[in-house]
């Protein structure tokens, strides 16, 4: 991996237009892969409250020799997280250990299907506020764990039930790089036409179903002239 080139000049902090931040989450989409691993269909995930990314691993294990610390070996990094929402697409039932033997009948404790996910977060700064741009987050190879659902009585301060799922991931192949389970695209740093091409894939078009392109396909969208 090549280190980025250093900028020439004196460092300055908190310049106008450079006070960046991220906020919000919207445009969630669920994708379920077919038997060949292609995420060819997508469904809107309404009521998305939060997606908490929780990477793990990448822990350092020191190795000693010649009475000194000889080197550090780093474990494999894992990607997982938590999804919280007021509701979920009907199709997510198959990813949440539910079978549907008849319309309106749901069996729990069944097999859990792998799924993919995309969602958008806002990118802002001190000049444009939340309208500076956004980031698209693409997640592959997700597997949801059983989750707790707490039903409580309606009272004088009613609250809507929220659902929460922890998920782990299995990385997918990327040519020239290590396998990955997550990609992030920054709208303020990529070509608008390329970004529009990706969003058409993710959200669908009049004659095309929503789909989640694999990492090699995403990279090609932004590198092919």
Annotation, overall tally of beta strands? 16
Helix fraction? Answer: under 10%
- Report the end-to-end length measured between terminal Cα atoms: 24 Å
Radius of gyration: 21 Å
β-strand amount: 35-45%
SSE order in H/E notation? EEEEEEEEEEEEEEEEHH
The secondary-structure class comes to mainly beta
Unreliable stretches covering 5 or more consecutive residues = none
Please summarize the sheet with the most strands: 8 strands, antiparallel
Structure commentary:
With 225 residues, this protein is mainly beta. It has two helices and 16 strands. Strands 1, 2, 3, 8, 11, 12, 13 and 16 form an eight-stranded antiparallel sheet that branches. The chain has a two-stranded antiparallel ribbon with strand order 4-7. Strands 5-6 form a two-stranded antiparallel sheet. The chain is globular, with a radius of gyration of 21 Å. The model has no long low-confidence stretch (mean pLDDT 91).
SSE map:
Blueprint: E1 21-32, E2 41-45, E3 48-53, E4 56-57, E5 60-65, E6 68-74, E7 77-78, E8 80-85, E9 99-102, E10 105-107, E11 115-125, E12 129-144, E13 163-169, E14 172-174, E15 177-180, E16 182-186, H1 192-203, H2 215-223
Antiparallel strand pairs: 1-2, 1-11, 3-8, 4-7, 5-6, 8-13, 9-10, 11-12, 12-13, 12-16, 14-15
